Amino acid sequence: MDALSQSQVDRFCYQYLQLEQALTYPEPQHLRCSDVQDAIYERLFADGALSAGPPPLRYQVRVLKELVSRVEASIEDWDEHGVSDGLMSSLSVLLSTPAPDEADAVQQKCHVVYHVASLPDHEAHITLFENRSLISAAGTTGLRTWEAALHLGQLLCQDSSIVSGKRILELGTGTGYLSILCAKYLNSTHIIASDGSDDVINNLPENFFLNQLEGSSAITPMDLKWGYALKGTEEERWNGGRPLDLVLGADITYDSSIIPDLVSTLLELFELYPHVEVIIAATQRNLQTFQVFLEKCEEEKLKVEDVSFEIPSRDQQQGPFYNDQVAIRICKVSKL
Question: A GO molecular function for this record (predicted)?
Fold first, then answer.
C-alpha cells in the first residue's frame, strides 16, 4: 500500500474508533484496491480486531453499509477489482444481528478510542468508556468527552512543559480524558481527577484500567463538589497538604448557575496554593454563560487572560477529531 493510501486508511480508522458521525472515507481510486479494503477489514471488522470491543451495532451497520456502497461505486472494471469478502461477510453478519431498541441504545455507554496524533508515539491513544448521547439518563454531561477537553489536550501535547513534572488538579474531569493524557503521556508527577458527580467518579476506575493506569500512583480520583470548603477527611488537611502546581478545567463553565461555586473553589485553591496556575478551556456555545464567569472573576479580583491556540480545521485533524466551527476559548486565571 502506498503512503497516501495508508494515510487515508489511518484517518478513516481513527475516526471510526472515535465513533465520529461524519467519516472521511478513502478516495475511490484507493478504496477499490484490495489491500486498502483488507487493511480496513483487519483493523476494524475482523473477529477480535478491537481489543476494547466493537462500537454500537447501529453504528457498525451504518458505517459498513456506506463503506461497501462506496467501494461498489468506485469500481470501474469488475474483472480487475471487487469488494472484499471480509467486508461483505461482516456486513451480512451485522445485518442479521437483532438491533437493540434505539431508545435504550442511546443511553448505553461504549468504548471510544481517541488517537492522539500530536504525540511522538504514533500509536498513542486514549480509550474511554463513555456515553455518546448528549446527556445521560442520570442527567449528567460528565459521561462523555467534550470538545474543550480535546482542544486543551492538544495544547498540552504541543507544549508539554505546562504539565510535565507538575502536580495537577483537574476540576470537572468527566471521562478523565485530560487527566489520563497527563498521567499516561505527558509526564505529570501526579494528577487528581476530580468531579462532583457520583456517576462520573464511579466511571473513572474503568477508564483508568482501559489505559493501563489501574492502581497507578500517577493519578487519583477525587469527589470534589464546588462551593464546599476544601477540608481534610481521613487526612487532617485537604489533599494531605501535598503541593499543587496547576489546576485544569475543560467545559466547566457551561451552566451559569454553578459559576459562583466554581469561582469560590478557585479562590480557596489560590488561598491554599498562592502560586498555583489555573488553565480553563470553554466551548463558546453560549457567550452569555461565559460572560457570567468573566464577571464573577472580575468581582472576586481574579484576572483572566486568553491563551492563543487555534482549532485545526477538520481536514487537517488526524486525531482526536472535534468540531472546528464552534470557538473554544482557553484562559489562564490568576489572583490579582
Answer: S-adenosylmethionine-dependent methyltransferase activity
